[in-house]
Amino acid sequence: MRPVFRKLSALLSVAFLLVLSGCSEQYLVLDPKGPIASAQKDLILITALICAVIAIPVFAITAVIVWRYRDRPNRKASYKPEWEHSTKLELTWWGIPIIAIAILAIVTVNYTYKLEPSVAIESEKEPIEIQVTSLDWKWLFTYPEQGIATVNYFKMPVDTPVRFKLTSDMTMNSFWIPNLGGQLYTMSGMAMTLHLMADEEGSYYGSGANFTGLHFAQMTFTADVTSQDEFDAWVNEVKTTEEELTEAGVEQLKMKGSHQVAQYSSFPDNLFYDIMLQYVEEGETGAHAHHMSSEDSGQDASSEHNH
Length: 307
Description:
Layout lengths: L1 H22 L11 H34 L18 H28 L13 E8 L2 E6 L4 E4 L1 E5 L4 E7 L4 E5 L3 E6 L5 E5 L5 E7 L11 E7 L1 H14 L5 H8 L7 E3 L6 H6 L8 H18 L5
Parallel strand pairs: 1-5, 4-10
Antiparallel strand pairs: 1-2, 2-3, 3-11, 5-8, 6-7, 6-9, 9-10
């Protein structure tokens, strides 16, 4: 049995060290910087509170039962060998969980509708669009309205809704900025829509939240949130000082491997949708085009709803 205890001791030690190493890290999910992340934090706390209402009394009652009915001299606990039913106890241990589950269901359904990623965020400002393409192992961001592109880095103006269009060159991944909310899959042949907004300026960590192989851990990016004036100045600077992203450059980005932060003054026309549809066989394009046109036509209507 000694080898078993050694292995168990080693596993517990590793787990303890991992917990300690994580204590100094900031819990990004619980530090929201936008309306979507704030709503997600509320959902986490509400769910945890409801679960605690069940778990804490159960643990407390378990401790009381173990202590009260332990085997000891001169015990005074009542002995009822013929006892088999209590309506009050049955109502307690069935009624409370049923009520808790019902409340959880109502809360979850409400927040699921409220946080639907494809529904635009209500705002007086017009949203900007950023097209996101996951590559192996890097992120490509293209701005169709501004005409610039970046790798592993992007900027967005504060208090302005952003409509992210997500796709993948090949391997499915998951786009996530913990401080702003979200986490939505990028899939080849599909254009997923995610609406986010930041209400505080700063630099926020982003990553791929799906395991995709060798350099998965390096597939991170920075999302800079600035004022509108700073954003406009940055766009102008990129357009006037950086090189363009050519077709050859796109093919190089598609090659497997990590990549440093890069900025481009322009990119090939329709790049995002060309990547999205590159594996679609002839005759299927119409279905994808219909999907995209239906989605785009519904954005104006969806903007009337809260995210």
